[in-house]
Amino acid sequence: MDATPPTSRRALLKAFAVGVPAALGAAARATAQPAPATSAPSPAAAPSAAKPVAAPRSRVLQFFNATEAANMDAIASRLIPNDDLGPGAKEAGVTFFLDQQLAGGWGTGDHFYRQAPFEAGTPEQGYQLSFTPAQMFRLGLGKLDEASRSANKKGFAELSPADQDAMLKRMQAGELDFSPLPSAIFFQALLDGTMEGFFSDPIYGGNSGMAGWTLVGFPGAYASYANDIDRHGVAWTRPPVSIADAHAHGAAGEAHP
């Protein structure tokens, strides 16, 4: 990723194309020791929302409180902004995507090995901290708001976009003190989660209106492409399809435009 948070969707997609984030916790290469805890993920289990439990379509928050949701909206708006190419991460419902995941088994680390000791590992070993995703987001968002109020006399969501970018840049560089959570790791978790929510299937609460898929031309979950195997050099003009609607598409013998 560039030295500053992406300020355009083009910058974001450039970063995405070269494989910057793969899963939450991928930035666990920091050398800081994890906080003591009695329950946590194992070194081999990087926290990722890549296999979330399907979230209901309701927009009622289940994990975030009002301040956390406002801060997450602001973060999402800066990482993938709304622009002339289409809706940004906030408009696509990334906050609700993360809210649903953090309220469920992924947030509580149901599949993590959760016994101490925890030691700093190499980047190849993945996530090494003692926090579950829910613990990380609750602590990190609170620390971000505290840092904002200390430096600017305002909560993060109340800052100007330029000031928000400045704080995100400092977080990414590990310059903000979120002890015992390394702020650079939390920044990566925010970036990864935002991108996952923006490009996930809409049944998981994000990618509202399939904004992310439309942006990159991803067709989604059509049940079959058998009729298109021999159609070379023909532009795909059909709109993307969610898993929830896939059964109604791609039937044998269906004529594709």
Task: Report on this structure.
There is one protein chain. This protein has helices at 9-17, 66-79, 94-102, 133-152, 161-172, 183-199, 211-216. It is mainly α. It folds into two domains: 9-218, no CATH class; 219-257, no CATH class.
List keywords for this structure.
2 domains; mainly alpha; disordered C terminus; 257 residues
Strand content: under 5%
> Based on CA inertia axes, which overall geometry fits?
globular
Largest sheet: none
Query: What does the radius of gyration come to?
Result: 19 Å
Number of helices: 7
From N to C, what is the helix and strand string?
A: HHHHHHH
The end-to-end span amounts to 38 Å
Low-confidence stretches: 17-46, 50-57, 250-257
- The total count of strands amounts to 0
How helix-rich are the residues, as a percent range?
A: 25-40%
Multimeric organization: single chain
Give average pLDDT, whole number: 79
The domain count comes to: 2
Class derived from helix and strand content = mainly alpha
